[in-house]
Inverse folding.
């Protein structure tokens, strides 16, 4: 069967700013996923820095590369490695499109915009407005202080529960990303199987991609 159908259903979304702390990982991420059986559509914010590195990695590996660009006063220019480039006036609409079809959400180091997208995803999962999917924080050195703040300040203050922190995972390599996406996808399939009782079209595609990954998995 054509992988084009799967490409539009299974995405690794990257929301990131321009820091270069995780640039190599961003560029090799999609090729690593593809080599392990995850034929993804890559969706980024469409801008420079890590977003461009990720789009370039997808472009170089023959993977469909999408950029969701935003109209802002500083005039973000779309990077040149996008097969499809869309422009948005409002951040909230853009966030819906980043999240709606995601198999996983991979957050690279960035600024306020990146934090906005991360906490939007956390809030939707925490409140049950979205099913749980992997929230992977790439670059543990960058993200650990934020998680420590949540654990040491927010949990004791009672503003979040300790289990909320477990909605996120720290990763430092594309291989860790692949492993966690695989594990969470298996959990999602088991949940859908129990809920629906029989395979839906989405479940059939998820089963195929899991089997293809298992055939080449090395962990």
């Amino acid at each position: 069967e054509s992988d084009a159908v799967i490409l539009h259903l299974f995405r690794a979304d990257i929301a990131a700013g321009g820091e270069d702390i995780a640039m190599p990982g961003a560029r090799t991420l999609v090729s690593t996923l593809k080599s392990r059986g995850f034929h993804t559509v890559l969706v980024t914010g469409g801008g420079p820095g890590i977003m461009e590195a990720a789009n370039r990695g997808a472009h170089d590996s023959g993977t469909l590369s999408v950029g969701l660009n935003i109209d802002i006063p500083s005039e973000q220019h779309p990077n040149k490695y996008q097969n499809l480039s869309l422009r948005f006036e409002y951040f909230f609409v853009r966030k819906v499109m980043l999240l709606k079809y995601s198999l996983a959400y991979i957050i690279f180091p960035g600024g306020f915009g990146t934090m906005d997208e991360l906490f939007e995803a956390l809030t939707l999962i925490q409140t049950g407005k979205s099913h749980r999917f992997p929230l992977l924080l790439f670059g543990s050195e960058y993200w650990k202080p934020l998680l420590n703040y949540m654990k040491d300040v927010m949990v004791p203050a009672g503003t979040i529960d300790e289990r909320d922190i477990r909605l996120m995972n720290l990763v430092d390599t594309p291989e860790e990303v692949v492993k966690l996406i695989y594990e969470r996808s298996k959990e999602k399939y088991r949940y859908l199987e129990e809920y629906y009782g029989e395979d839906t079209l989405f479940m059939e595609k998820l089963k195929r991609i899991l089997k293809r990954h298992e055939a080449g998995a090395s962990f």
Summary: The first helix runs from residue 3 to 7. Residues 3-140+149-216 form a domain with the Rossmann fold fold (CATH 3.40.50.450).
